[in-house]
Amino acid sequence: MSYLKFDKNLMINLEQSLPKEMLRTNQAGAYHCTSIVDCNTRKQHGLLVMPLSHKDYRPHVLLSSMDVTVIQHGAPFNLGLHRYKGGVYSPNGHKYIREFDCESVPRTTYRVGGVILTKEKIFISKENRILIRYTLVDAHSDTTLQFRPFLAFRDSNELCVENDALNSECTPVKNGVSTCLYPGYPTLYMQFSRKPEWVYDPHWYKDIEYVKDLERGVPYTEDLWVPGYFSIPIKKGESIIFSAGIEEVAPRGLSKMYENEIASRTCRTSFYNCLKNAAKQLYLVDGSQEYMLSGYPWGTVLARNTFMSLPGNTLAIGHEKDFHDIMETATKALSHYMQTGEKSNRIHGIDLPDIPLWALWSVQQYAKMAGIDKAREQYTELTKNLLEFILDGKHSNLFVQESGLISTDGSHVPASWMNSVWDGRPVVPRSGLLVEFNALFYNALMFGVSLLEGNEELKNVSARWLAHAEKMKQPFIETFLNESGYLYDYVDGQYADPSVRPNMAIAIGLDYSPLDRRQRKSVLDVVTRELLTPKGLRSLSPRSYGYRPFYLGSPMERELALHQGPARPWLIGFYAEAYLRVFGMSGVSYIDRMLIGFEDEMSQGCIGSLSQLYDGNPPFQGRGAISHATNIAEVLRTLYTLKKYRQ
């Protein structure tokens, strides 16, 4: 039985099926995403969505969807589903669905009278091409399939309206047609494994609504261009493969291309395999460079997310080479910034003050997961450069204080991962001495010392790092540890922010901490009592001022709530390590039970993945990006940690 299978009763109930989404990517930035009933519910959905390098690598929807119609005895049965103005769903093709299975590839089974038809979709790795295989499992009379493509050719964050600028021309190609609606876009080739009849029948399909955008309080209605339809007779037991890509393909090779791609897939037969697939979907290969996307559907390459998610999304699933390749790309951009002050136009946020700290943490995880000797060989020079860069005060927004602690200015531009902004100002203006910055710095210094152990050439450098760590140890405790037994979130001059936030979990979850075991347990107790949910740690305690647990409403309301209560799954990685350090083997079963809440999500939201955030109050609904790199990574790293403890 499949780990991810949904039956007829769920599929025909739109209240249950429409919120469930599925995602497939090509590991080169392109993706296919829609609901499991193939009704697009947000403007970012589409059959072929791909980044365009000359448009700042933003994703663009070329092929929005494809309606398939089964024709028997002259009667058409349209299997498509769209939501139109006023909440009207048509043509209600979901009522023919008997099953949806997402173990290896998304497979939908339809039944129309005596006709049983399956549809399977797969993305070709590193190529901007999606293949859809239609198989007529059973039929008692002659059957014809019609395919009607819905075209958009627009930025995935914008909407299309009927216009006269559109190029309506369709050019015949081998077993299909090609078209390009607007200048500046690549040509889309739509081809079949068998020769179809192409009927040019152009129409605008107007007022298509996207319910997720309606809920988010943003524009949600558009018009899509349908230039005509393909028609192909099909026999019982026969398969037809449709290809949509930006290069012409040899139709005779489509079947082999499809089978080769399936053979390389990891089936989603377990919690771990689902997360492994979700992690690999975030890899982005562009020529000789490899990156990590922050998420889908509107993710990009972010420096902080890259370093935070790199260990879990590569090393925890046995992809050491990808760790090195992505790390090399990211640290090349970081080193260039440190030397010249120039930002990267591909890896956003490389200049943020905590990037060197997260890069050092990522190297430390490599040392733990791959071995300290391999880390010494690969990353000693990088570790030295990053720590010396910080200690020498060369970062424009990271300042070493007399106490040894480090400060930053986040009053006007957010300095940390809590980076929501409204009306040009940070919603959470964390500035001065930030608790996780200083915990990460202390941890990085101590890790650096361990990395240089036995290195006589760098003995003086190691001694400097150790001395600085010792210098900042007591000031850290005096600055952040309060009488209530938890850590202030930040201290800016005379102001110590008393908000109970999860950044203290990072401080107690690191390998090296200024806090002793008793102090860690005190902080852990507060985190457990006030922040822990089945979906990670809340970004703010319900007891703290300004708690907003639900990421709902207008763009303003959502931005104000972003870091004021919703839970983040990625923080479970630090919480788990802190818990296991305090309780040892006796904490393994507890952390194992905590992960059940994440496994439940495999059949919710974007099936097989984890959302960007979850409401801070029950029922802990997933919100934001449907597949998020740091969340996937840290749950994978937690699974890895538990496995090591058991061994």
Describe what this molecule looks like in 3D.
The protein is an alpha+beta fold. It contains 18 helices and 35 strands. The strands form 10 sheets. It has a 9-stranded antiparallel beta sheet with strand order 1-9-10-11-12-19-16-15-14. A hairpin with an 8-residue loop joins strand 15 (176-179) and strand 16 (188-192). Helix 12 (503-509) crosses helix 15 and helix 15 packs parallel to helix 18. It is elongated and about 85 Å long.
Short description:
The chain is an alpha+beta fold. The chain contains 18 helices and 35 strands.
Radius of gyration: 26 Å
Largest sheet: 9 strands, antiparallel
Total strands: 35
Could you tell me the mean pLDDT?
96
Morphology call? elongated
Q: What proportion of the residues is helical, as a percent range?
A: 25-40%
Q: Roughly how many Å apart are the termini?
A: 30 Å
How do the strands of the widest beta sheet line up side by side? Answer: 1-9-10-11-12-19-16-15-14
Q: If helices are DSSP runs of H or I spanning 4 or more residues, what is the number of helices?
A: 18
Low-confidence stretches: none
Structural class by secondary-structure content: alpha+beta
Hey, roughly how much beta strand do the residues contain?
25-35%
